[in-house]
Amino acid sequence: MQQKEAAGAEDIVIVGAGIAGLAVALGLHRKGVRSLVLESSPSLRASGFAFTTWKNAFRALDVLGVGDKIRKQHLQAQALRVISSSTGEIAQELDLTVQGKRGPHEIRCVRRDLLLQALEEELPRGTIRYSSKIVSIEEDGNVKVLQLADGSVLRAKVLIGCEGINSVVAKWLGLAKPSYSGRSATRGLAHYPDGHGFEPKFLQFIGHGFRSGMLPCNETDIYWFFTWAPSENDNGVDESAAKMKQFVLSNLRAGKVPAEALAVIERSEMSDVLAAPLRFRPPLSLVTASISKGNVCVAGDALHPMTPELGQGGCSALEDGVVLARCLGEAVLGEGARVGTEKERIESGLREYAGIRRWRSIELIATAYVVGFVQQSHNEIISFLRDKFLSGVLARRLMKMADYDCGTL
Q: Is the pTM of this model over 0.85?
C-alpha cells in the first residue's frame, strides 16, 4: 500500500475518542488549544452500556462544562446497599443524601453513549478523525511519525495515547503489560419502556465467589454487572448471550439474591462482549514507569487499566483529562510560571501531569484489586470478616476514593 504522508505536523494528536481522549480534547478546547483526535472505529464506541459515575467525575465534568447536561439525563442514587450473597443480609448501607467533607455525595449510573455524545458535541467540527487506527510510531527529530492502518502517515508535535488497555502509545513508552486478575466480567442493560419502578439505589451483592450489582440509569434503564473467577466448569458460557445470561442467573440463584434483581437480568440486553477478562496494570510498575517521555504521554486505560470494584475507571479518565488539559494547555500558551522554549514548556507540562497522576493511579489500581479479592472470596474466614466487619470499611474507603478534586483548567 502506498503511503500518504501529511505535509505538515499536527500540534497535538490524541489517540482514541473514548472518555479520556474526548475529555483531554475538550479541556484543551476550553483553553483555546486545538487538537486532533484519532479514533480507530468508524463512529463513537459505547461498549459496556454504562458506568458508575462518582463525585470526582462530576467535578471533572463540571470543569469541562457538561456536568449539568449529564445530571439531567441520569438519576442520583440515594443509597449504596451492600448485601451478602451468602447470607442475604445487608452488610452495609450508606445514605448518599448526607453531606460529605466536600459537599453532598453524588453517584449516578451514566450511559456511556450519552456521555461520549455530550463531550463530542462540545468539540469543533472536524476534531475527531474516524477510521484512523495507529499501527506504529517512529521519530523524526522531536516529531512523532504515526503510521496508520490505511497506509497514511501523520506527524505529531505532541502525542497523547488514550486508546485503552492495548495502547500502542503505552507500549512505545515501555509501560508494563497489563496482567490478568483471574476474574472476568459481563454486563447488561434492562430497558423498561413504561418505567422500571425501582428505587434509585446502588445494590451490590458480594461473596459466594462473585460480585454483582445494579443501578438505575434513569426512569427506564437499569444497568447491571457480574464478575467471577472462571473455572473449567464455565466452558462455553460465553458462546451466546442466552448461555451467558443463564450462567449469571444460576450463580445468583445459588446465592441469596432477591427475585426482583433476577428479573432485571432476565429481561436485559447483553453486552456485545459476552465475557471480558479483567486486567490491570501492575501498580508497582508505575512507580518508576515513563508515563510521559518528551512530548508523549498516556491517559485513561492506556495509563491505569484497573479492575472495576471501585467504579473508578471512567471517573479517573475524566480526572486525567482535566489535569492533562491544564498542564499541557498552560505549556502551549505559556501561562503561569511556564518558561523556556515551547518544546521545553511542553515536556515540563507533561512531566507535571505524570507526577500528579502517578500516585493517584497506583492507589486506585491497588485498592480496586484488593477490594475485588475480598468481596468475591469463598474463604470462610475472609467471608466472615467481610460480612461482619470489612464491608463498612470497604464502603467508606470507596467513598473516600471518590472524594477527589482534580482542580480546574
A: yes
